[in-house]
Amino acid sequence: MSEIFGWSFNWCEECEECGVEFWFKVTSRDGYRKYCGRPCWLKNHNTPERNAKVGRESAAKISSTRLARSTSKWYRKVRGRHEHRTVMEKHLGRKLGPNEIVHHDDEDKRNNDLSNLILTTRPEHARHHFSKGGTL
Predict the structure, then answer these.
(1) pLDDT digit string (tens) for 49-61?
(2) Alpha-carbon distances, residue 127 vs 106, 121, 132, 134 (angstroms)
């Protein structure tokens, strides 16, 4: 048993990542430790494959949560972009400009069928919504 800065440590190990000797107190929760700290643990565990897997799982969980809401106010996204805009861009064969709006004719934000999408400018889009007495 060793005492450092008033703390009692009863086990000494060599970090598997950096090779530094470190002391720690063994508890039932900890058991045996292989790394001197979180940075060394992350170097060993955060592989590109693991990061990709965690990212896919997180994206799927977020997407399924949003789509599960019956009164969802969210537009579906594909690789960080609104799906209705990417559908219109594929149809036109070009990127949409910042002043171009893709309007959902039936006003269902989840219905991204090309027959339901109308390309308008910002002023036309505002006129369309306000003429019905609604809001954007």
Answers:
(1) 888 888 888 888 8
(2) 16, 10, 9, 10
Domain ranges of the chain: 2-45, 48-131
Is 136 within 8 Å of 129 (Cβ atoms)?
yes
C-alpha span between 102 and 119 (Å, rounded) = 5
CA atoms within 13 A on the CB side of 52: 3
Alpha-carbon distance of 84 to 76, in angstroms, equals 8
With contact defined as beta carbons under 8 Å apart, do 124 and 130 qualify? Answer: no
Mean pLDDT for the stretch of residues 9-35: 74
* Residue 77 three-state SS: strand
Q: pTM value?
A: 0.45
